[in-house]
Amino acid sequence: MPQISVIVPVYNVEPYLRRCVDSILAQTFTDFELILVDDGSTDRSGAICDAFAQRDLRVRVIRQENGGQSSARNAGLDAARGTYICFIDSDDSVSKDLLEKAIHPLLNGAELSVFQHCEIFPKGLENESEYIPGDIAIHDQQERLEFIVSQLLQGKIGWGMGRMFRREIIEKNHIRFIDNRKIFAEDLCFSLYYCIFVSKISVIPDVLYHYYVRDDSTMGQQKTVLNAGRMQELCKELFTFYSAHSEGKILLEHFPIIYFFVVENEINRNRKELGLSMFDMRKRLVESIRDYSFLQKQMRGLRNERELLFRVYKDARQVGYTINRAEYYAGGNEALFILKRFSTAAAAFADKALKKRSTGRNRLYKPGASHENDIPSEQNEQEASIHSKGN
């Protein structure tokens, strides 16, 4: 049996597929199988897969009707025979020593190997990840909670790309990708499943994965879309999974903080992309979320997570800003009602109020009322962001 199974979902990537597969077959570590899952491609991607399989016995081709990237990855997992699993997207490429370097920590006791990646933009600009190299030891459930909240959900070891897993952990705990048409960031969900079962993670310093940013890719097409609703569905899947495993008990006890960071990461991404005010962002949030009562329960539950938030930020001001934002998001239904009922001028007045300094908890916008203390101002948010990055 091969030591590593490399799984590549393939769907209509004819211009990029050869680059990807060539980089995998050129690996200095050779004891691997390459599973190409043709997810119902309508271009020549399937024929390209077949040509590679004829040329190299390590290549296996699986065909299925189009079911999405998660379905294709799961098909690859079902067919995998390797001790270790690595996922690579079909429009990306990897360094020739990826498998050799990524497997080393796993052979020495690690249960998750994380490596650096490089984003490559259409105009040639590059942006390398800066994960802090070293071993992360998790001794108990409290340390696991703090690792997930303060490192994984803060992007300090990335979310999806740049990982090698132990297949035994995946199969023993029935871990699979959730349909990416139902949730957003299915690779984050997979990592949040997997990491409740690991005690040692190794982060290596080498840039081994090359992620090509394309406007017509799955992620590129989501640039201006607020996927908060699908992120909430991700959180519901997490809640169900953690409820079924004793290792997830402590995460259930602190679920509001998990929920907040998952959903607000998407809010911040979309707000930055579109340059929206907090007021307009909350309107989009209300429109994106179907089950707003679930959001309100989780966001308001963040009030009880001050101690854990302080361990993340190490800054009492940032903790206050964070809880205040959660309170603001939780008032979304009422905010949309006011937007619909009152004039554009009233909405503009409310938006202007957002820019004034905050000294207290959120209140709903009411005609004729003062809103100076409603939520953190743009200036405070920037100060908090700068302060947070410095820690």
Structure description:
With 391 residues, the chain is an alpha/beta fold. It folds into 2 domains: 219 residues, Spore Coat Polysaccharide Biosynthesis Protein SpsA, Chain A; 133 residues, no CATH class. It has 17 helices and 10 strands. Strands 1, 2, 3, 4, 5, 6, 7, 8, 9 and 10 form a 10-stranded mixed β-sheet that branches. It starts with a strand and ends with a helix.
Summarize it.
This protein is an alpha/beta fold. The chain is built from 17 helices and ten strands. It has helices at 14-25, 45-55, 69-79, 98-107, 141-152, 167-172, 186-194, 228-243, 249-253, 255-274, 278-288, 292-301, 306-313, 316-330, 332-341, 344-353, 378-389, and strands at 4-10, 32-38, 59-63, 84-87, 93-94, 112-120, 126-128, 134-137, 163-166, 200-212.
Question: How large is the share of residues in beta strands?
Answer: 5-15%
Shape: globular
CATH topological fold name of the largest domain: Spore Coat Polysaccharide Biosynthesis Protein SpsA, Chain A
Uncertain stretches? 332-351, 353-391
Number of domains: 2
How far apart are the termini?
A: 45 Å
- Class from helix and strand fractions: alpha/beta
Largest sheet: 10 strands, mixed
Radius of gyration: 22 Å
The CATH H-level homologous superfamily of the largest domain: Spore Coat Polysaccharide Biosynthesis Protein SpsA, Chain A
